[in-house]
Every structure is written in C-alpha cells, then in structure tokens.
UniProtKB/TrEMBL annotation:
UniProt protein name: Undecaprenyl-phosphate glucose phosphotransferase
EC numbers for this chain: 2.7.8.31
Record keyword Transferase present: yes
CC terms in the record's Gene Ontology section: membrane
Lineage: Bacteria, Pseudomonadati, Bacteroidota, Cytophagia, Cytophagales
Keywords per UniProt: Membrane, Transferase, Transmembrane, Transmembrane helix
Membrane topology (UniProt): Multi-pass membrane protein
UniProt-annotated location(s): Membrane
Transmembrane segments: 12-32, 44-65, 77-97, 109-134, 276-298
One of the record's GO molecular function terms: undecaprenyl-phosphate glucose phosphotransferase activity
Segments forming domain Bacterial sugar transferase: 271-454
Organism of provenance: Rhodocytophaga rosea
C-alpha cells in the first residue's frame, strides 16, 4: 500500500519542477565558472543544457526518486539519487559519444555535476524538514475513526499508526461487539455521528461485514451531508490472507488475489518486443566479439562441448532446452545444483559464473521465445518437483516466461539454495516482480544486473 499523504499529488510534480530549475541554474553557474562572461560559447552550450535537463528527468523517473514511499527515508533517498546520477552520467556520455560532441569542456561538465548534485541533496533536506514541520503544524492532519473493532479494523488501525509522516490521526473504534481492548473503543455505532461532528472527523472507515446494507447506506448519507469521506475496508478473513485487487467491469466489482500486469495482451506485446530487440542487439553486437575468446578458453581447459544444454521448466511448466556456456567438467550429475568450491567447476567456468557470462547464450532462448530477458530464473526440474510441494505459490512464478536475470537475483538471492527459506525468498521476489511489472522495472533490473557484474557478487559461483 502506498503512502497516501494529503499532499502526495503535488509533491512529485513540485520536486520535478524544482530539480529542473536547480539543474538549469547549476549548468549556467558552471558555464560562468568555466568561461566567465564569454557569450561566444553560450549558443554552442545551449544544446547541452537541454540534454542535461532531459537526461536528468529520464533518469530520475527511471529510479523513482519522486516516490513518497522513500521521501522520509534518507538512506533510501540517497541510494535512489546515487542510481539516478549513475544513469544520468551514462546518458550524457552516450550523447557525447553518439553525436561526437567531444568539444564540451570537461571542467564545465565536472562543475555542472558537483553543483547540481549538491544543490539537489541540499534542497531535498530542506524540503523534507519543511514537510515535517508542515505536518506537525496540524494543517495536513486527517482525523479518522473505524467502524468495526475486529480483524480488518485492527489491521487498518496498525496501518494508520505505523508511520507518523502519513498524516493520519487515529481517533478510535466504534463497534457494538468489539474484539480488541476497550481502551481504543469510543462507543457503540449509535454514538458515531455525534462523535464525528464534535471531533471534526475527516474520514470514516467501515471494517465490518458487507451484509448490513441499511447501516452502510445510513453512514454514507451521513458522511455526504457532513462533508466526511466514507471508505470501506471489507473483512476478507477466511477468503484470503493477502492483498486483493478490485477492478470494475462497468459497475460490477471484480476481485483478484494479485495484480497481473502481464495478463493484459498489450503489456505482453511490449515485453516480447523489447525481448526481441534487446536479444538481437546482444547477439549481433556483443556475442560475436566475446564468443571466440570464451570458446577457446573452455576448449583449452577441459574436454567437452562449448555449450551446455539442459531441460528446464518454463512458462506453464513447459520444458525447453536452456543454453549456457559449459562451466563444469563433463559429468553425470547435471541435476545437482552447483555449490561453493564445487570440484566440477573449471577455472574458466568459475570466472564465467562470477561475471554471469555463462548465461550469454540464453539470449538465443529469448529470441526463440522460451525465455525473457527479465523474469523468474529457470530452476532445475528436480527443484520444481521438490519446492512446488513445500513452498506456497511456487507454481505462480511459472505464469510467465523465465528470465536471464530477475528481481530476486538483483536483490541478492542467487547461487546455491542451502535452505528452503532462501528459495522461499526467491519466490516472494518473483511474485513481487510479476505483480509490479513495467518496462521501467525491467530496465532497472537490467541496469542493476550489469552493475552487479562489474562489482562482482558473493553468491555467484
């Protein structure tokens, strides 16, 4: 659930505009520091000013730095800003190389980055302090009450009190048969209306069963007449123990147990088109240069084929031949997961696994339609048979095509799974990816994968 602050609709736009102004001012100040008042260069650098600003907006949106979920968490804010700067630098250098714009002064670019980054961080700190002061003033406070002191009401109560920056002030429960301590109970349901008027309540949440139609209509009418927001938090206990999503087919509410963006045909077309284009670029521009060297090293160290093929379960558990560069000596234990210091792994294979270069041939799997660039990693057949019996929702990850890289992998869950809990975490991240898929998320995972390849990963063996 996202933090629904009363000013959430405006904060993101405000920060975007503020960043645009800060960066524009930083570039102009950097120009002045480097060239003084020499206006002869001003027209030439105008295009750079524009590209610098547009690249920042793209990298900032890509890294979601305007999300309120992380605005009050300084560590998360700095992390997202760092990634945004890295992506921005890559975009700027791509622009310089692509358009051969090598005449831009390096000192000017350095000044631009130093001034822009420092100014953005300083402005964020001031802005966060202002928001906290603004919230503490009470001007943004929303006073809420809950009808129903049961399971759903109690869960909603904990949501309201867990983060003071969300702007909620919980006032109490109203219930004729409460299930929680009476300390939080303000009265029976018949006392609700008088209390709401007396205490200037802003929102009423109904957390009882939906069978009391007359009661719901009566409270809804009361809220309309007294300018109070009325919201329903139905108790799905016994039906499902997780988040649900509700869509409307005309006026008919349809409930699903999870979001499925890739359930829509248009999204699948976008993802498949991206897979084809991306895999073709890798196969045409990277594979021909790397393949000869890798093939030679594999052959020199050990006997056997260059490529390793193995049946893996894919989308809807359909088996396909997964391609990799061979990283082990030829053996009969192909269904045995690799472990740390595994004697089967060659020296070349250890390097290939550490850098994930052994998975380069899987771009052919992507091109053939068996895999995707990003998705749940394809496990062994034996793992499918074992974990599908003991891990809840394990089979859900096979609703989509497996990927060369995935959300679980960039969050540190790769390599050997010594304990069931490690596979459980992978499944959680895989399902999380499926529920939140977007093209931007795929691009972010690809970027983090490349970044992890450069810095190296402890669990890659």
């Amino acid at each position: 659930m996202k933090k629904n602050l009363p000013y959430s609709k405006f904060v993101g736009i405000f920060l975007l505009v503020a960043d645009f102004i800060i960066i524009d001012f930083s570039c102009k100040l950097a120009f002045y520091l480097r060239f003084g008042r020499n206006i002869n260069y001003e027209d030439y650098y105008l295009s750079f000013f524009v590209i610098f600003n547009l690249a920042w907006i793209a990298s900032a949106l890509f890294n979601n730095i305007y999300s309120l979920d992380n605005l009050f968490k300084f560590k998360n804010l700095l992390t997202n800003l760092f990634y945004a700067v890295v992506v921005h630098i890559l975009l700027i250098f791509s622009y310089i190389i692509s358009f051969k714009a090598h005449d831009f002064a390096r000192l000017f670019i350095f000044y631009s980055y130093i001034l822009a980054i420092d100014s953005i961080i300083f402005f964020r700190i001031i802005f966060i302090l202002f928001l906290k002061y603004f919230k503490q003033s009470g001007l943004t406070e929303r006073r809420v009450v809950i009808i129903g002191a049961g399971y759903a009401g109690n869960e909603l109560y904990h949501y309201f009190i867990k983060d003071k920056n969300m702007g909620y002030k919980f006032m109490g429960f109203f219930d004729d048969s409460p299930e929680i301590p009476s300390l939080l109970i303000k009265g029976k349901i018949r006392h609700l209306k008088d209390y709401c008027i007396k205490e200037n309540i802003n929102e009423i949440y109904y957390a009882l069963s939906l069978t009391s139609n007359d009661l719901i209509k009566d409270i809804a009418d009361f809220c309309d007449n007294n300018f109070i927001y009325f919201k329903i938090a139905p108790d799905f206990r016994g039906l499902v123990q997780k988040k649900v999503n509700i869509d409307f087919y005309d006026n008919i509410p349809i409930m699903t147990f999870r979001r499925e963006p890739l359930g829509f045909y248009f999204n699948r077309v976008i993802k498949r088109s991206f897979d084809i284009v991306f895999s073709l670029m890798v196969i045409c521009f990277i594979f021909p240069f790397i393949f000869p060297a890798i093939a030679l090293l594999i052959k020199l160290e050990s006997k056997g084929p260059i490529f390793f093929k193995q049946l893996r379960p894919g989308k809807r558990n359909k088996l396909f031949e997964c391609y990799k560069f061979r990283t082990m000596r030829v053996n009969a234990q192909t269904e045995l997961q690799a472990t740390k210091s595994d004697p089967r792994i060659t020296k070349v294979g250890k390097f290939l696994r550490k850098t994930s270069l052994d998975e380069l041939p899987q771009f052919f799997n992507v091109l053939f339609g068996d895999m995707s660039v990003v998705g749940p990693r394809p496990n062994l057949i034996t793992q499918l048979e074992e974990y599908s019996k003991i891990i809840d929702k394990y089979a859900v990850r096979h609703f989509v095509s497996p990927g060369i890289t995935g959300y679980a992998q960039v969050n540190g869950y790769r390599g050997e799974t010594k304990h069931v809990q490690l596979m459980q975490k992978r499944v959680e991240y895989d399902v999380m990816y499926m529920e939140n898929w977007s093209l931007f998320l795929d691009l972010k995972i690809i970027f983090l994968t490349v970044w992890n390849m450069i810095k190296g990963e402890e669990n890659a063996y």
